[in-house]
Amino acid sequence: MTTAQDPFDREALPAGKADPALTADDVRHLARVAASLAEQVADLERRLDEARRLQTREGTAAVERDQEIHHLASRLRTLRRFGLDLSLGRIVADDGAVTYVGRLGLTDGSGERLLVDWRSPAAEPFFGATHGDPRGLRSRRRYRWTQGRISDFWDEVFDPDALAGQAALDDQSAFVASLGASRTERMRDVLGTLHADQDAVIRADAAGALVVDGGPGTGKTVVALHRAAYLLHADPRLGPGRGGVLVVGPHRPYLAYVADVLPSLGEDGVQTCTVRDLVPEGATAPPEADPEVARLKASADLVRAVGPAVALYEEPPTTAFDVDTPWGQVRLRAADWAEAFGAADPATPHNEARDDVWAALVEIVADRLDLDEPLARMRQVLERDTDLRDAFDRGWTIVTPEDLVADLFSVPAYLRRCAPHLSPEEVRLLQRAEPSAWTLSDLPLLDAARRRLGDPDASRRRRRAEAAAAAERASMDRVVDDLVAADDSDLMLMTMLKGDDLRTSLAGAGGTDATTVDPLAGPFAHVVVDEAQELTDAEWQLVLDRCPSGSLTIVGDRAQARQGFAESWTERLARVGLTRSRTATLTINYRTPAEVMAVAAPEIRAAVPDANVPTSIRSTGVPVAHGAPTDLERVLETWLAENPEGTACVIGPPAGLARHDRAHGRVRVLTPQTAKGLEFDLVVLVEPESLGPGIAGAVDRYVAMTRATARLVVLGRALPPGRSRASVEKEHENLG
């Protein structure tokens, strides 16, 4: 933590900003923040140590203790991580009131507010004020922190007369100035420089689906992640115990890139994953090799075939069946079987509803005999009737998800019956020699089958748990009887053990077997989907099944859809089942230099005329360079030598990358698909013509080019349009 006496790095501050008079109020206030932080860190350490030493075995108390430990540890990590740079800046209202805004709220020992949480309504003007709508502010100051000290700050004055001589004005706002900073392998911290258009999206209500539509560099991902943190703080429907938030990203490099964002905002309980992570088989599943098969499996109609497929394992016997019991014979008619099978709750998975159906069948037999015998006794008798069990098993069969989906791909008649919309040729295409050779396109079907069928071992585990509980009760009865018999005290205290409450306490929690819980199974209160334009209708079912509330933040760009995206977001989402959606469009490109967009925009517009190409607000003065693939090593070596900071990425087709693979700590080698959502100071696009024709090729080139935040070099085998060989060779000399 920096010293409270001087949080400003005077040597780093630009000329005109180092005057102590400009920062005296901030220095005093940040000294109070530093003192409060030290007190809170010490207090949190003490409370965390006490909570960890607290011994308890009671179920509820143990859960509450663990929750308290998690809360204290999370808060402590955030305070230790940032120290004074929790403070983002300050605002001055029209009435002169000064409010300091922070990553977290902070008060001193007397309860006075030192920092307001950035997600609170009081902080909203810090992000949302503009000269057109100052939100009741005189001024706003934003800090730039470097290694724990303020290396720069920017003042924006909305009432010049009220703050004459009290602000350091320059011609570059904090937001634009931050865009030229070098990139690292993790997404930069941008909380202090969120723009008004982005903040408005972040604070939008969580009800329904909100589409954040924007081209490259508009900050879609930043908005989505900050929105997740905001909603967790502001919306009680997303609070603890309500399901939490899931973030679904396009690929693993993306998840690594954004890994620090939510923890830096004080939220470390958000689950993040890719679509393939949602299903266990996704870990090893390759892409579908046949494009036509992939197209068929991309449809939600095929996912819906799982319902009829399961229903074929829930068919009650249609003939009468005689059941012999010690109390007489009962004839089960077809209507009795149908009644028992109809007792299953439609919301209960098939395998887990099996015990409910059996219980209904036992009750029908008991009612027919009109006996006073306990149902548990009748159940024991019927469990031993192998003929009855066999008939029941044939009607309500235990099925695994893997077997059900494999049968669809290996038994044509089964697939035809469950998916009548398929043509004979399409049924033939979907059959394969190895039914369980799962691909990425199979994941939505496997997930739907797993949800509809449930745990195939649920019934067995339940019976085992019931038997163990019965044995424990019998053992407890014997112990209690012995203790009561041996009690010769006047008060006969041991008779208290006959009470059910005390006996339950002595027995402990007991109960069912512990089962492994899939943290990605949901349900979640809110789901964020980034690069959503790439999801197929079938993959959307994976997402929606985990978000029954329909509260989603959907981030994407129709122009970056490799398979094309001709319809509107409203039409696409309505087709997959999201009828309540609204769209917020971002049109300002804060990342990509105008020089790069001048080359990238024609590329995508030629294939997607209505592409939402954003307008760049910054220019580097560095034109896009062109060269040949053989120039790659020279380009990288020169850039690395001249730029001690920042990251570079070589992007191209897999075959081209194999020829130019290069290992270096600051240089990545990616395909356009795995570069989506990332950004680099230098992008070298290798063999762009090899990315192919059509929409997919144009999208790949557009995505690759727009990853650059400072410089783009295109190394192709063909000449750029309108360029001569001599002009390109002249450019080669200056590639570095």
Q: What topology does this entry show?
A:
Elements lengths: L19 H34 L5 H24 L4 E7 L4 E5 L3 E2 L5 E5 L6 H5 L8 E10 L2 E9 L16 H5 L17 H7 L6 E6 L5 H15 L10 E5 L2 H6 L3 H4 L6 E4 L16 H7 L2 H5 L1 H6 L9 E5 L2 E5 L1 H8 L8 H20 L5 H9 L2 H10 L5 H8 L3 H7 L5 H7 L12 H11 L4 H29 L13 H8 L18 E4 L7 H8 L7 E5 L12 H8 L4 E6 L1 E2 L4 H14 L7 E2 L8 E3 L4 H11 L5 E4 L2 H7 L6 E4 L1 H4 L4 E7 L7 H12 L2 E8 L9 H8 L4
Parallel strand pairs: 2-4, 7-13, 7-14, 8-9, 8-12, 12-13, 15-16, 17-21, 18-19, 18-20, 20-21
Antiparallel strand pairs: 1-2, 1-5, 3-4, 5-6, 10-11
User: How large is the share of residues in beta strands?
Assistant: 5-15%
Radius of gyration: 32 Å
The tally of helices reads: 29
- Strand adjacency order, main sheet: 3-4-2-1-5-6
Q: What low-confidence regions span 5 or more consecutive residues with pLDDT below 50?
A: 508-512
Largest sheet: 6 strands, mixed
* N-to-C CA distance: 40 Å
Average pLDDT works out at 86
Structural summary, described in words:
By secondary structure, this protein is an alpha/beta fold. Helices cover 42% and strands 15% of the residues. It contains 29 helices and 21 strands. A 6-stranded mixed β-sheet has the order 3-4-2-1-5-6, covered by helices on one side. Strands 9-8-12-13-7-14 form a 6-stranded parallel β-sheet, with helices on both faces. α5 crosses α6, α12 (334-341) crosses α13 and α13 (350-369) packs across α14 (375-383). The longest helix has 34 residues, at 20-53. The relative contact order is 0.09.
